[in-house]
Structures are given as structure tokens and as C-alpha cells.
Amino acid sequence: MSEKIEEKIHLLREELRQHNYNYYVLDNATISDYDFDIKLKELQTLEEQFPQYFDASSPTQRVGGEITKNFKTVTHKSRMYSLDNSYSIQDLQDWEKRIQKNIGSTNTEYTCELKYDGASINLTYSDGKLISAVTRGDGFQGDDVTTNIKTIKSIPLQLKGDFIDEFQIRGEIILPLDGFNKMNQKRVENGEEPYKNPRNTASGSLKLQDSAEVAQRPLDCLLYHIVSDKLPFKSHYETLENARKIGFKVPKAIKVCQSVNEVFEFINYWDKERHNLPYETDGIVVKVNNLQQQDELGFTAKAPRWAIAYKFKAEQESTILNEITYQVGRTGAITPVANLEPVQLAGTIVKRASLHNADQIAKLDIREKDTVFVEKGGEIIPKVVGVNLNLRPVDSEPTIYATHCPDCNTELVRKEGDAKHYCPNEYGCPTQITGRIQHFISRKAMNIDGLGAETVELLYKENLIRNYADLYDLKVEQIIPLERMAEKSAQNMITGIELSKQIPFEKVLFALGIRFVGETVAKKLAKHYKSIDNLMSATFEDLNSVDEIGERIAQSIIDFSNDLGNIHLINRLKFYGLQLELSEEVLGNQTEKLKGNIFVVSGVFHQMSRNELKKAIEDNGGKVSSSISKKTSFVVAGDNMGPSKREKAEKLEIKIINEQDFINLLN
Ligand code: AMP
Ligand code: ZN
Q1: Which of 58, 147, 578, 615 could form a disulfide with 573 if both were Cys (CB 3.0 to 4.6 A apart)?
Q2: Ligand 1: does its nearest atom lie under 6 Å from the Cβ of 314?
């Protein structure tokens, strides 16, 4: 009897899975909605009666219902990179030259795919089952949104056919236009504001707390990349074909091209045809097809070298510029803003656009009351790209750029060589003060949960904080009486602040908001100097001699370190117990054994992955370079190293060592 029931449950699951697949992936329904619902109900009833047969991958798990209050932050096993952009055939030809030089071969082939415009997602499968789904976040870590993702019907919970046991697959969660318009229609009928555009709505949907609500949204997932050490394929194209076979939705608009000219044909075709697609695309992604070549090429600090996005030309509209206003940033930089007569542009309504700086305004001779052209590029903020002089009012006057800070009214300064004006009132200008604290608590910095940008303003207004160190003195009793605060939220805030004391040094360094010290620079500095004390006592020459640290950054660090106010702030942070040096654990894995040596890594390895090898080089003080030159100290050669690379190394008489030699070198 029980065997029979188990079998019945299995059969129903199989059948429903297949119907789901036919409908949501193949877009080809093979059963009526009504019959589908009856079968689903039957399965639900059986599963309720016989909970011993529960399966997290059952089609019944797609209806949602589970609530997530806080999405867990998870570190990606392998980083989710961004893509470099290109805008012309020339850019693509330059890219081809670069990669061909890098791999030492002109034998290259490309795949072209549409660039799906949504929210990236990383799905992990094990033994054919969906284990987790994590958003891209900052590329290093994202949010675990598995419960919400499970409700998207085109994402298989259980794979079919021939799949590898363990892998991650990356794709884009999108909201097709049709579904998006229907959602908006309903909202308008209910008297609600319509959503602005499909992309933001898709990405917002992933962070809804109620998964049943997510299940109601017509989200879709288009896949474009498998990550695994054990891919049994030679090309990206084969990988995608396999992904399609095992159940994923991989769009058919993919082409293997032998040349950049052929790539450009694909681009031109889709530049027109994209307007007939059921979803939005903002470009084409071109990738080196051969996986071993991809591996050879590796990554820059931001993006893979083996891929490039081609961006379709941005859409433009013209509208009236009502007024130019000015904004102060956390560093005191002033940004002029165009306040526009609202205009519909690329699916969103635009009311404001950036004017960059005084030179830009002068160069384009932009004036209030002008009719201007507004463009939306890859950035979220649209920009003014020109003026329609024919429509300029007769009484128009040239723009006189602001002379004083819009916030604290201090006279603005502009240093030699700087594009922007600055408000020099660093410690008295409210926007700069709150801006610095907002940067400090932000996700990529101290990532303080329970405290947001608005609350920072409130705390500042109430005289509770004047700088980021003051956060660590806050008491629950001080917060509860504030507007919109309750005991629970106050407690959460204090807990969040307390937890930030564990944030590693490199992030703290970034959080300090030293001018020109972004995420990557902070990482470099943390690794090099190992503690804030070493960094702050370094000389200009010493700083400038660190790899990739130029004069501008060095001077900024010197200025920061010489400021008594900053010294006092850092001492307070130390006192509160923040991580102002690398942890023992990180230090323990680092040596200077390879100091002064530049390595080029090429080929396939066995004892460690190529990335582990590169990390080992860097952790031990060496430098990794992507191409062989006279400066190269060693080439670490694995299997199938490119013949022309080997030739080059031999010609320049550079030592070629194998994986084992390298390991010996370390020990
Ligand atoms: P960007 O965010 O502009 O740097 O572009 C990189 C993002 O494009 C990736 O993180 C992906 O989420 C997304 N993307 C969309 N379609 C593709 C595709 N076909 N191949 C690779 N990435 C894609
Ligand atoms: Zn100011």
C-alpha cells in the first residue's frame, strides 16, 4: 500500500514537472490550467496525508507562503563579476586584439547572447536539486533568496537527463513586458502608483518578504553561465546547450561567430529586432567560446577578460530644463542637477538628470528654460547631452555656476586639476557629515543592519551623532523616543552596530571614506600595510611606491592621517574594538616568500585550481600578471599551455615551472 502511494506521488510530481517545463520553459502548454490545478491539488493532498514523502523539490513547493524577515548574507563561492562595455565595432576590434595578444593566438571564436536586463542570480544545484539562490549583491556576497526563487516556475527544482553533481548556474531574473504591463494595469485600477520599469520591479520582487506574493508575479529566469571546476565541455556554447537540455530556460538567440564582423551582424540584427522581444535587453554579450581560452584570459579586478558587453545606443528624449540646482556629496563635491519637465524615457519617467560639473555646463552652454536632450545610458541617473538651440528663449542668459554651498553656504573652492567644485566646510556642512556616516554604514562598508540613511539624518538632527564614531556610543534609551522608533527597532539598531565590530579591516578602511580610497584600493592598502597604524604613519614616497597607488591617492591618505580630528576618530574606533588591523587568521596565511616576483599562470592545473594558484601567489607576496614580458620572473605552466606563450617565454628566457615546482617554491 505505502509503496503504491509513494509511487503515485512520484508519478504526479514527474508529470507536473513536465507540464511546468512545457509551459514555462518551452512556452508550449500541454494541459489546461484547470487540469493542472486538479493534479496539483491531488498531489498536495497526498503530501499532506503522507508527510514522510516530503520533497523540497516537489512542484507543490512553488506556491510560496514562507515568510523571510531577514535575508541571510552569503559569500559567493566564486565571485560574480561585472562586464566591460563597448559601444562600437572599433571597441570590439580592440578587444579582440587584446585577447588574441594575451592568449598568443588568433584562433578565436565568439558566442553572442542578448544581454538580459533584470537582476542577476546565482543558483546552486547539487545532485540535480536546487539548493540555493543568491543575488549578486556586491559580487562577493549577496542575499539568500531561495524561498522566493522557488516560486519562479521556469527555474527547475529538479533537473532531468545528464547533469553534473555539483554546479552553479547564473542567470537573470526578468519580468517580461507583458506581465509587467498587466501588473501595472492592476495597480492603476487599485489606485496605486504604477511600477517604474521591469528591471527594478524584478529585482525588488526578489526581496519581498512574503514568497506567496512573489509567486503571483510573472517572473522569469534566463540563464547564461555555468560555473564548475568539472565541466565536461570544451565551449561555452556546448555548456549552454547542455543547460537547456537539463531543464533551464536558455534563450535561442545565441550565435557562434568566427569574427568580429560576424558579431557585428548579430548586433545590428538585434538592435532593430529587440523591440519585438517579449522582454527588455540593453545590449549583446560577446564571449570567447573556447573554455580553455576563457580560463587563460581570466579576470581583471572588475570583469572577465573573455567577455564584453556591447551596449545599444541609449534612447534620447528632449524636454525643458526648468531649473539648475546643486547637491553636496559626502566628500563635499558639488554636483549640478537638471530639474526637468517630466519626460518618458526608456520605460521610466525622468524628472532629474546629472549635469556633471561647471565645465560640462559651459561646454554645452546649458541654460535654464532651454530645451535639452536627455539620454539614459547604462547608469541609473540620466544625463543631459545637448541643447536644442533653435528653441532657446530670446531672453535667455548664460548660467552662472553656484559660488556657495547650497547646504551650509560656505564659499566653494575648486582645486587645480579637479573637475568639481567642493564645499571646504568638511566638519560643519551637514550633508557632508551625514553623507560620511551613511557611507560608513552602507552595505559594502560596515554593512550595519537596522540603520538606514534616513535614520542617520534623524540621529544627526537630534544631536545624537556628529561622526561615525558616535554610533558606538548610542544607547537604546536614546533612540526609543525618536520619531518612528520602537523598542524593537532601537534594539536592532544597537545590535547591528555592535556586530559591525567584527567587519574585517579592509572594509573598515573603505568605510572611513578617505577620498579616492574605494573598495579595491582599500583592499590593496589593507593587504600591504596590515594595520591602520602602519598605513597612517607611511610617508608619501612609501605610499606612492605601493602597486597601483598613485600620487593622488597617496596625498589623500597623507592629508587624512595628518588631521588631528581623524586621529582622534581612529583612536575612538580602536577603543570600541573595531578591526583596525588584519586578523591573525588572514595574516597566518600570508608570507613574503615570493616578494619581488612576477608570475604568469597558464594552462590547466590538477592540485589546485588556477584561481587558488593565483591567490597563493598573491598571499605570499608575489604578483600575478596576465601577459609575458621581460619583467616576468616565472611562468607557471599547466597542461595545454598555449604554444605561442611558451615560445615567447623561451625567447625571453623566462623560467617555466610546473605546478609541483611552484608548490616546492612555496614550501
Ligand atoms: P553590468 O551589470 O552592466 O556590469 O553587466 C553585467 C551583468 O549583465 C551580469 O552581472 C549579468 O547579470 C548580466 N547579464 C545579462 N545577460 C547576460 C549574458 N547573456 N551573459 C552574461 N551576463 C549577462
Ligand atoms: Zn557645505
Answers
A1: 578
A2: no
Q: What is the pLDDT of residues 156-178, one digit of tens each?
A: 999 998 899 999 999 999 999 99
DSSP element (H, E) containing 257: strand 254-257
HSE-CB for 621 with a 13 A CA cutoff: 14
Q: Grid coordinates standing for 630?
A: 621581460
CA distance 513 to 331: 8
Cα of 225 vs centre of ligand 1, distance in Å, is 10
Give the rounded distance of the alpha carbon of 530 from its chain centre.
27
Tell me the Cα Rg of the chain.
28
Cell numbers for 545: 611606491
Model pTM score: 0.64
| Burial state string for 416-426 with b = 16 or more CB within 10 A and e = fewer than 16 | eeeebbbbebe
Pocket lining: 302 vs ligand 1, CB cutoff 6 Å: no
Q: Which three cell numbers stand for residue 439?
A: 557611507
Query: What is the residue type of 606?
Result: H
Catalytic residue of the set 8, 41, 77, 115: 115
Q: Are 121 and 149 in contact (CB under 8 A)?
A: yes
Our answer to whether residue 115 is catalytic in this structure is: yes
Ligand 1 centroid to residue 117 C-alpha, Å: 8
Q: State the pLDDT at residue 378.
A: 52
Beta strand 598-602 with 623-625 is: parallel
Q: Is 122 in the pocket of ligand 1 (CB under 6 A)?
A: no
Q: In the predicted model, is pLDDT for residue 190 greater than 70?
A: yes
pLDDT tier at 380, thresholds 50, 70, 90: low
